[in-house]
Amino acid sequence: MITTKQLYNLYLQYPVISTDTRKIAPRSLFFALKGDKFDANTFAKQAIEAGAAYAVIDNGAYQLGDRYLLVEDVLTTLQDLARHHRRQLTIPVIGLTGTNGKTTTKELINAVLSQHFKTQATQGNLNNHIGVPLTILTIDTTHEAAVIEMGANHQKEIELLCSISQPSHGLITNVGKAHLEGFGGIEGVKKGKGELYDYLASHSAENKIAFVNSDDAVLMEMANARDLQTVIYYGNNKTNSLISGIIVENAPLLTVQWTNNKTEENYTVKTQLTGAYNLSNILVAICIGTYLNLTAAEINAGIENYQPKNNRSQIVQTATNTLICDYYNANPSSMFVAIENIGKIDAKRRVLILGDMFEMGQESAAEHAAVIRKAMDTPVDERIFIGKDFTAAAEKTGDEKTNRFYLTAEDAIADLKANPIKNSTILIKGSRGMALERLVELF
Length: 443
Ligand SMILES: CC(=O)N[C@H]1[C@@H](OP(=O)(O)OP(=O)(O)OC[C@H]2O[C@@H](n3ccc(=O)[nH]c3=O)[C@H](O)[C@@H]2O)O[C@H](CO)[C@@H](O)[C@@H]1O[C@H](C)C(=O)N[C@@H](C)C(=O)N[C@H](CCC(=O)N[C@@H](CCC[C@@H](N)C(=O)O)C(=O)O)C(=O)O
Ligand SMILES: Nc1ncnc2c1ncn2[C@@H]1O[C@H](COP(=O)(O)OP(=O)(O)OP(=O)(O)O)[C@@H](O)[C@H]1O
Ligand SMILES: C[C@@H](N)C(=O)N[C@H](C)C(=O)O
Prior knowledge:
- The protein is an alpha/beta fold and 443 residues long.
- Helix content is 35%, strand content 22%.
- The strands form three sheets. It has a nine-stranded mixed β-sheet with strand order 6-7-5-8-9-10-11-12-13, with helices on both faces.
- Strand 11 and strand 12 (253-260) form a beta hairpin.
- The N and C termini lie far apart (59 Å).
- The structure holds ligand LIQMQMZN, adenosine-5'-triphosphate and the ligand C[C@@H](N)C(=O)N[C@H](C)C(=O)O.
């Protein structure tokens, strides 16, 4: 069987990885992964015929010559190769995880660092045991910095991803209520996300840097509980933080005023982001840029140019309404801050359209009821809830009398077609599986 070092020598000659015969890059290394439907060992011959230089397989029955490299396990080999490649790199590698805002924060850091460094960053949401190694293997000798997003829905995943990405700098965006099923409750999320701080603490001899939000009591407690060598703070607190900042306008795009507390200089940046919760995402990107010696002009240019994508708090202006399209995902933590945000937005008429939250496990009923209560306490003109979990929760609390509940999106669409909403700012948020994008054409 081929060793990681031997495979690495081939990777240096053929530094592109393919995993799908429908998209084979010429002269790439094809890794035959297994999915729900296929075992890609069966596609190895096809990969070679389509132009791959070598195929990495773990079933000897498909080894048809010396361009078929047999390993024990293809996925582990991909991870080992990425881990080995990372060890050769001496550039700053910013690793981040957290419950909410990972992709937005990763994009903001990338936007800032790209003003000064040739930066490589995770594409989209490719943040798991396959996506992280694939990202690491796209870093080449021309790159000067990398930003690696790490996602998890159970314990020990971040530990594994850190062992591959070996971040020199790390941050946790926040710890909240998401993927409760796999993590086993909020304490489980804390432990699971804390694996990033554990990694930084256990490699302190290499002077790993942690960036911590000093406004976030949970993160502060988690950071203080570990032996982190270098901690750089950001947040409202001017005394301890390298960067502090406040929102000066939320209408609905954010304008932020920030201070470099080392030089005591103030700056203002107009962003294309909405949602007060994005302040900490913006501040950490500014903080990392400042720590890595970018100028304030470079930092502001990076932040100003970043436009959110893929229905992560995107503003869409229609003929009669302003939509906050936030239906990429949802969980109790991000629901609460999104509801709070629309409650504070300067608008004539405000509407909430909320879809069920997935992967909540046994806390699902209580969490859906809590979101209904939060919505009730927020000054909006109309509240619409969609999904069986919200409907079931409302039946218990009796709220279905004062608000509109629909079991399915189809039911909601039919009613909204008959009774269109006009002249409103509308927050649309729900879990990915609710696919609330189906509603947009109604407004
Ligand atoms: C293995 C693989 O690539 N899977 C992708 C595949 O899934 P499927 O099960 O359908 O695979 P198949 O059985 O069809 O195929 C197996 C392999 O065969 C190849 N092949 C197939 C046909 C053919 O003709 N030729 C072939 O070569 C094929 O390419 C496969 O390699 O297809 C799905 C649909 O496109 C993909 O979604 C699936 O990708 C998997 C899920 C994956 O992990 N991809 C990573 C690159 C990745 O990073 N994906 C992210 C997911 C991030 C995420 O959800 N993050 C969570 C937290 C992390 C949770 C973690 N525990 C987890 O479970 O992921 C978060 O909240 O942020 C993404 O896609 O966004
Ligand atoms: N700092 C934050 N605090 C709370 N909620 C946030 C924060 N940042 C973003 N969100 C919410 O999370 C949604 C998804 O943002 P983003 O994709 O950046 O998060 P993510 O952590 O990458 O999500 P996922 O784990 O599903 O990939 C946003 O549209 C917004 O509703
Ligand atoms: C989209 C995926 N990363 C995620 O966040 N899933 C939760 C359950 C959601 O869709 O809200």
